[in-house]
UniProtKB/TrEMBL annotation:
Species for this entry: Marinobacter panjinensis
InterPro entries documented for this protein: Aromatic_deC, PyrdxlP-dep_de-COase, PyrdxlP-dep_Trfase, PyrdxlP-dep_Trfase_major
Protein name: Aminotransferase class V-fold PLP-dependent enzyme
Keyword field contains S-adenosyl-L-methionine: no
Residues carrying N6-(pyridoxal phosphate)lysine: 294
Keywords: Aminotransferase, Decarboxylase, Lyase, Pyridoxal phosphate, Transferase
GO BP annotation list: carboxylic acid metabolic process
Domain of life of the source: Bacteria
Cofactor: pyridoxal 5'-phosphate
One Pfam family named in its UniProt record: Pyridoxal_deC
Protein family according to the UniProt entry: Belongs to the group II decarboxylase family.
Amino acid sequence: MNTDKAECGHLTEFSAQLARQLDAYLTFQHPDAMQQPDTWRQALAQPMPEDGIGIQAVLAELGEWVIPNGSPIPNPGCTAFITTGATTIGALATLAGSVAAPQRLGLTAFNFLEELSLDWMARMFGLPEEMKGLYSSGGSVANLVALGAARQAAFEALGIDPARDGIARPCRLYASAECHHSVQRAAAVLGMGRRSVCGIDTDQQGRMCPAALRRQLMADQQTNLLPVAVIANAGSTNRGAIDPLREIGETAAAYGIWFHVDGAYGLPGILDPRVLPLYDGLDLADSVIVDPHKWLGAPVGIGATYVKDRELLNRAFTQEAATYLEGACTNDVAAHSMDNLGIPYADMGVELSAPSRGAVVWALIREIGVAGLRERIIRHNTLARHVAERADAHPNLEVVSAPTLSICGIRYLSDRWRDLNELNRRIHRRMVQRGRAIPSTTLVNGTLAIRPCFVGARTTLKEADELVDEVLAVGQEVAQMNDEAAG
């Protein structure tokens, strides 16, 4: 089929068909993709076509073989990961951007919303007025960008431009022992090396110990290591722990070190008045990250980095001039949206080509407002507390990690099992295979916990209760199977 003819259809016709297919998927009445994997794999594993089959036929195949065999992650009962299914407006705004603004450049409404939505989030989360942001693909790149700024600042203080000339001295990053592993990866990519990350001890609740940080900083003063950043969690991915931000930030300031706060998951928790005091000290941060594709319900692929001095990002990540870009626009008075590239986001991070992410975040906030997002955050935190309360009240359950935010750790107890970690590991795998409630697991001080994380916009008290019921039902089933095997 001629390619031009294949593109002649109207979006309204085809998007309506796709919407019906996706609506059917969101009822979650279909079996899991691995129930009949051979069927859809054989249907899709066709030879590469020489001639195309057209939009209508491709949509039919999407609806029959691809969409119904998608991921269970958007299911309200799936609480395994901190990323979740996008809200409807998030998905629609993404579609709008992919059609109407496929690049993050130019003087368009979409690019206007990049800066506006970043400013909205900064105000919503109580960041200092001078903080400005940059979108990227998620927390991993957001941490990389923030630590790139920290590296730039540390070496510029020595009269060195590390982005231009490279690193001339071994570095040290100080992070909670429960920091996200993207911190180590960022250190590697930035040339400081994974071993430059020094894990600071945490307390029983998973929070960084400021005294341990101070001891390490004092010890490192006797070395040639250049301190680059102190990294605190505002909601760790493991347990949702919030480090004592003020004490850590004041310690970093006393030693003249960049203070970075990783709030990829947990920063929106500041909207819950019950935990708001735990964010005291956020104003001391030199950089903060947050992922709208976690708790705000954006499609996966949207993170944000905030820094007090965005010009540092320009120096850390600027690219060499390209004649095909620089000559395409002018700095004169704009009579056309392509007369100027707009804010040079491409020089502030690691992406040149990037989608219009700001319109998605703008749409999410515009749809339900700060009040709606606050209600969601409070609801999710309440769900985690509800799970903990039910576990406390049942003789066969135990709270392993009490919730601070929307993460809770529980385990099943049985006096017929010596190895409770193995028992709960089997319970978890059985729960996943049943597909009704799908949490993850984690280790908390050596104890394996079944770990739900409530972030899905569609997740309610019903799913929280179903999860506890599943742990109890499957726990009894697995314990009984063990008795029968032993007998």
